From TrEMBL:
Protein name: PHD finger protein MALE STERILITY 1
InterPro entries per UniProt: MS1-like_ubiquitin, WHD_PTC1, Zinc_finger_PHD-type_CS, Znf_FYVE_PHD, Znf_MS1-like, Znf_PHD, Znf_PHD-finger, Znf_RING/FYVE/PHD
PANTHER family associated with the record: PHD FINGER PROTEIN MALE MEIOCYTE DEATH 1-RELATED, PHD FINGER PROTEIN MALE STERILITY 1
Secretion signal span: none
Ranges of residues in domain Zinc finger PHD-type: 607-653
The entry's keywords: Metal-binding, Transcription, Transcription regulation, Zinc, Zinc-finger
Naturally occurring in which organism (per UniProt): Abeliophyllum distichum
A molecular function (GO) term: zinc ion binding
Transcription is among the record's keywords: yes
């Protein structure tokens, strides 16, 4: 029976050590973390409270973490050791889908993906359980009833990450405030990031399907910041589905970020008038010119941190609005207002037709002699709302000349008050105010109408790019981070530290050595200054046998490009912090269903029209004649539809059509 008392995680158990949540995992707290990943994990677990029966036969530890002292808030971190013998699946599906499977690669660094990694003997799960998941598990323990799903099998944790003993890991989920957690998403990510860095993890992957208020964060933040939300912690492109590569992904982000707002304002149809209002509103609030779609999303998301969370509180722009907020304006507000009224009157006389910039300028010069002032107003006035009018500005695609048009929006928006009309004259409002509720609503409307529901605009020049780029970004879900843990601490050169890797040859069924060799990542070894090569060889064999299932019987025979005697001192021949590689044979192989690599080598053939040549984790269908697999989406089968019992690819359909008819 577990010793835990988790009634809201508010009370600490007497005599149990409590750690600070905000610094847990940093180097030196609670451990020094100066060795290899596996050594660091074991050092950390010495500070944990051993739990029994929490995950069946698996060993587990708990750490009580103090988030706040006043008011008191504590959470529990669980670390669960999963031996390969107790794993339901020996092969890691997360390693399979982060990249392509290629076990013949000679170096982990030169390969794409993690499918070529050897299966490790153990995994370590790091869990911040939610109130629901921990009580669901403990209810079985405290009633002595069998728990069908142990803690690592439950869904809905506040955080769940898993590491292989070689230092490669996967962040499986984080769930913040919106799911009822006491921790915000950024707090959870900072905690996870400290763990990865402190423990000396090598690389960590994550499948990003996170949403907030119905918006995919990997799309929203890509447009606003040029990277996903997890990019704040240096997560970068890992692999795209449907044949997407990193060049396509980066180009898609740039394409969306650089969409001109003037193009949106010109081509949005009548049913999108609310977006026109939105564009004008945030041009005013920003106090500076927002040129592109990326500028607008970036400003709106940054503004969210300035607007109070109280929905009744208004955010007031510190600028007078519109062109008066431009720092390059050298004219008085009164003169600018007069010039705006003259330009509006000139556009009114055009009877709502498109007129060139020069034509508007010439008409206004009859009343405003300062051409510099007119040029400034014409530049700043485009795609803004003045009174009951929306001033459109666009580049004529034929003549390549800027044109203006005045559109009456009073019927669609009778309560529009971006500017005041006093005695039939346009008066600039002194401030533009936005509530947090209005801001979040505007972000969602812009996201929905421009990025997602853009079918009505795809036939317009330039808008087809939005559709394609959006699809590319949404099809990119796998990201990873280089944690830099392979070489341990980089701050101090430890003279007793050495890094060793293994090149080994496997045996075939008949016992003969294979010509295929594999290389492991480097592991950190801390040796005494008088250590010999015989002692080093012993430690290398012991360590790599502990880490990898396929090396449980590994025998080190020699050192690459090096031939020392066993009694030679290591640090007389190798500088501290150096790298050496041992060569050897695997000995008697452990029998594993599907091989000793994380990637399962399947016999089916993938050849999809999108360019995919391997299983990328998306739904696929197999042709019943040629047995080639393709994405269901690529063969026009919606994700919500069932897979048909019989399916023929286009190639086989065409071949059948060309069969000679029977007599």
């Amino acid at each position: 029976m577990s010793h835990l008392d988790l009634s809201g995680c508010k009370k600490r158990k007497r005599g149990e050590r409590v750690f600070k949540f905000k610094t847990f995992g940093q180097r030196g707290y609670p451990a020094e973390f100066n060795g290899s990943f596996l050594q660091n994990v074991r050092e950390l677990l010495e500070f944990g409270q051993v739990e029994t029966h929490l995950c069946g036969a698996m060993t587990s530890w708990s750490f009580q973490l103090e988030v706040f002292r006043h008011p008191s808030l504590h959470v529990y971190l669980f670390v669960i050791e999963e031996p390969i013998e107790l794993s339901i699946h020996h092969h890691c599906q997360h390693c399979q889908y982060i990249g392509t499977v290629n076990p013949k690669v000679n170096s982990n660094e030169s390969s794409s993906g993690w499918g070529h990694h050897m299966i490790c003997n153990k995994k370590y799960h790091f869990l911040l359980p939610s109130k629901n998941t921990i009580h669901a598990c403990l209810s079985h323990i405290n009633t002595d009833s069998p728990c069908k799903s142990n803690l690592i099998g439950l869904q809905g944790h506040t955080m769940h990450g898993v590491f292989h003993t070689n230092g490669f890991g996967h962040l499986l989920c984080i769930n913040g405030l919106e799911t009822g957690s006491d921790l915000a998403g950024y707090q959870i990510m900072e905690f996870w990031d400290r763990l990865c860095t402190g423990l000396g993890a090598r690389k960590v992957s994550f499948k990003d399907t996170s949403q907030k208020k119905g918006m995919d964060l990997r799309l929203l933040h890509a447009v606003a910041y040029g990277k996903p939300w997890f990019g704040r912690w240096d997560y970068a492109f890992g692999r795209g589905s449907f044949g997407i590569n990193v060049e396509m992904y980066e180009s898609a982000i740039k394409a969306l970020q650089n969409v001109p707002l003037s193009l949106l304002a010109h081509h949005l149809d009548a049913c999108k008038k609310d977006i026109l209002i939105l564009l004008s509103r945030y041009q005013i609030v920003s106090g500076h010119s927002l040129i592109t779609l990326g500028d607008l999303f970036h400003f709106m998301l940054e503004l969210k941190f300035q607007v109070p969370k109280d929905s009744s509180t208004l955010y007031s722009s510190q600028y007078p609005g519109l062109v008066l907020s431009d720092t390059s304006c050298r004219w008085s507000p009164k003169r600018v207002e007069m010039a705006i009224r003259v330009v509006i009157q000139a556009l009114k006389r055009a009877e709502l037709r498109w007129v060139s910039r020069q034509e508007v300028r010439d008409a206004a010069r009859a009343y405003i002699g300062d051409t510099g002032l007119l040029d400034f107003v014409l530049k700043s006035l485009g795609n803004h709302i003045v009174g009951k009018y929306f001033v459109r500005r666009c580049l004529n695609p034929v003549t390549k000349v800027l044109e203006y048009c005045l559109e009456d929006i009073s019927r669609e928006f009778p309560k529009q008050e971006e500017f005041l009309m006093v005695n039939n004259e346009t008066k600039l409002k002194p401030q533009q105010k936005v509530t947090r509720v209005q801001l979040m609503k505007d972000i969602f409307n812009l996201y929905k109408n421009v990025l997602i529901e853009h079918k009505k605009m795809t036939n317009t020049a330039g808008f087809s790019t939005i559709s394609v780029a959006t699809r590319i970004i949404l099809d990119t879900k796998y990201f990873f981070k280089e944690c830099g843990g392979e070489l341990g601490s980089k701050s101090v050169l430890n003279k007793s530290k050495l890094y060793c890797a293994v090149i080994w040859s496997s045996r075939d069924i008949g016992g003969a050595l294979s010509s295929i060799k594999a290389v492991t990542p480097y592991e950190c070894f801390i040796l005494g200054n008088n250590a010999t090569f015989y002692e080093l060889k012993f430690e290398v064999q012991k360590t790599f046998r502990e880490i990898y299932l396929g090396l449980r019987n590994f025998v080190a025979e020699s050192i690459t490009n090096f031939n020392p005697r066993g009694t030679d001192l290591v640090f007389e021949m190798v500088r501290p912090g150096g790298k050496i590689t041992f060569e050897g044979i695997e000995g008697q192989r452990e029998i594993v269903n599907g091989g000793i690599y994380e990637g399962v080598m399947s016999n089916f053939v993938v050849d999809c029209g999108c360019g995919t040549k391997y299983d990328d984790g998306e739904r696929m269908i197999c042709c019943d004649i040629c047995e080639v697999w393709q994405h269901t989406r690529c063969v026009q089968i919606p994700n919500g539809d069932e897979i048909p019992n019989i399916f023929l690819c286009k190639t086989c359909e065409q071949d059948i059509l060309h069969f000679p008819s029977l007599p």
